[in-house]
Design brief:
Layout lengths: L12 H11 L9 H13 L3 E6 L4 H15 L4 E5 L6 H6 L23 E2 L17 E2 L18 H16 L8 E5 L41 H10 L9 E5 L6 H13 L1 E6 L8 E4 L5 E7 L11 H4 L2 E6 L8 H6 L19 H12 L5 H15 L4 E2 L5 H18 L2 H6 L8 H7 L5 H12 L4 E2 L9 H4 L2 H6 L9 H10 L3
Parallel strand pairs: 1-9, 1-10, 2-6, 6-9
Antiparallel strand pairs: 3-4, 5-7, 7-8, 11-12
Helix pairs in contact: 2-12, 10-12, 12-15
């Protein structure tokens, strides 16, 4: 572990770490300690996604700060996506990948020194380097003057997507292929998604469990390199493209059900596949999510009663939900004013890493290797059962995955900030050696679980409506009684009901 950073296990660890990180950042890099804290927890816990709930007027600022932290501090190749009601499953998947230079469609080979491509090494979290060696190239878009531009001189979203599609199709398909490529979500490594007739049906999982409406342009396609395409690209000097290691999405609640289902299926299968129309016997090209992939959803604050306004199944993959308030500062207006609303981003030209991979891995090993006593495991089980079966909560999303998330986040917070017992009585910095700190650390207690549980289950539950609105409410309350009732008790908030359920478990 680097001596430049504080040692974990004290209540001030995250604050001291954020101060040291800020000293190494430029003054114009947006930063917020609370957002940094939650992202740090998710990266250390491993493969955890995050919901940041904030006020509407601050959502753009939160989105930019989250992207800045992921890229400038952790060195992750980050994509920022803005969705709306016009977004389609294809446009969502297209926006996950950087723009492409038209030179890749040229039959003339280019060396890295001749090409305007930008060298983007794999992220520090991509431990297995699935997508190739560090010299892989990523090229920006070289727009042709033949494209029709809008009134402001910019290509529309559809035109940008079609431009990228045409360039990409020419570059990734073997010579002589005439079939149209398409993009789908893969459920298996085989990536076979065409049916027996080879017809284009839309984006769907290869498992056949679900089917998304055929409301997409089947000629639209995006691509990320698998080992098969990597070998092809190396033989033809064609650049390959990485799946992003971090995605910050905004406006997901306004997107259609098909878009949300596509995102959920991508998170479930952890892969995207490229295959060709009319070739059902050919295996598609599969792009797997890299290790340590994180998705951050900037979500409206809500009413404190309901789930985030997305599909219930889509809320489950998010391991943590936090409320963010950006304090007013001189840089607030600059943050708000410089946020782009484009659904895709240009390739980032420079990547810095303030927190190294070794340091994050060190903290992750500490968290994963921390033992949890059987009594704490039983307490977590009883606590989640009390929440799931509370009569005022709709908690069908409290599953085994939720229990796993709660366990891992409890360990992470316990290792980084110390035990709640230590916060009450033990002074920080009394123990110098790391090994001695681990040995002398007070044991994990139910209070350590309580510090985390609201963030883990808050977005997975909602408060039930009154008996009048229940499916069998007419059995208890007749129509006459319902018409005569003039006043109804106000619904309690999720926080209030959760506090009641937590207090009931000893």
């Amino acid at each position: 572990m680097s001596s430049h950073f504080p040692k974990p296990g004290t209540s001030s660890f995250v604050h001291e770490l954020s101060l040291r990180v800020q000293r190494q950042l430029n003054n114009n890099v947006p930063f917020d300690e609370s957002i940094f804290r939650w992202i740090l927890y998710c990266l250390i816990a491993g493969d955890k996604h995050l919901i940041l709930r904030t006020r509407s007027r601050e959502s753009f600022a939160v989105q930019k700060v989250a992207k800045s932290i992921l890229f400038s501090i952790f060195g992750l190749n980050t994509v920022s996506i803005k969705l709306d009601k016009e977004s389609t499953p294809t446009s969502l998947l297209l926006s996950l990948f950087p723009r492409i230079n038209s030179s890749i469609s040229s039959p003339v080979s280019q060396t890295p020194s001749q090409s305007p491509a930008i060298s983007v090494p794999p992220t520090s979290f991509d431990r297995k380097a699935r997508l190739g060696p560090p010299h892989l190239l990523m090229t920006p878009t070289n727009r042709s003057s033949s494209y029709v531009r809008g009134s402001h001189g910019h290509l529309s979203v559809q035109e940008r997507n079609q431009e990228r599609v045409s360039l990409l199709a020419d570059s990734v398909l073997p010579h002589g292929h005439t079939g149209r490529p398409r993009l789908s979500v893969a459920a298996t490594i085989a990536g076979v998604t065409d049916d027996d007739r080879g017809s284009i049906r839309g984006i769907r999982p290869a498992s056949g469990r679900g089917f998304l409406p055929p409301d997409i342009d089947a000629s639209s396609v995006t691509f990320a390199a698998s080992q098969h395409v990597q070998q092809l690209s190396q033989s033809q000097n064609i650049p390959v493209f990485q799946f992003p290691h971090a995605v910050v999405v905004h406006g997901l609640e306004t997107a259609s059900k098909a878009v949300q289902e596509t995102l959920w299926d991508m998170l479930r299968t952890r892969s995207v596949v490229l295959d060709r129309e009319g070739a059902p016997d050919e295996k598609g090209v599969v792009s797997n999510m890299p290790d340590g992939f994180i998705l951050i959803y900037v979500c409206p604050l809500g009413d404190g009663i309901s789930n985030p306004p997305i599909l219930k199944a889509l809320a489950s993959p998010f391991g943590k939900c936090c409320f963010i308030v950006i304090p007013p500062s001189p840089n607030s207006s600059a943050i708000l004013g410089s946020v782009t609303l484009e659904p895709t981003r240009s390739p980032l030209l420079r990547r810095t890493t303030v927190l190294s991979r070794e340091y994050i891995e060190y903290l992750g090993h500490l968290a994963h290797d921390t033992p949890m006593s059987p009594s704490i495991s039983m307490y977590i089980s009883n606590l989640l059962s009390a929440i799931r079966y509370h009569p005022q909560l709709n908690a069908s999303n409290i599953t085994s995955r939720c229990a796993q998330d709660l366990t891992e986040f409890t360990k992470t917070v316990f290792v980084l900030t110390g035990s709640s017992m230590a916060l009450q009585g033990t002074k920080d910095g009394d123990i110098e050696e790391e090994d001695e700190t681990i040995k002398r650390r007070p044991p994990m207690t139910p209070d350590d679980v309580k510090r985390v549980v609201r963030h883990v289950v808050g977005h997975r539950v909602s408060v039930r409506e009154g008996v009048h609105e229940e499916l069998l409410g007419s059995v208890v309350v007749s129509a006459i009684q319902r018409s005569q009732s003039t006043e109804r008790e106000p619904r309690r908030t999720i926080r209030e009901v959760l506090s009641e359920a937590i207090a009931a478990v000893n």
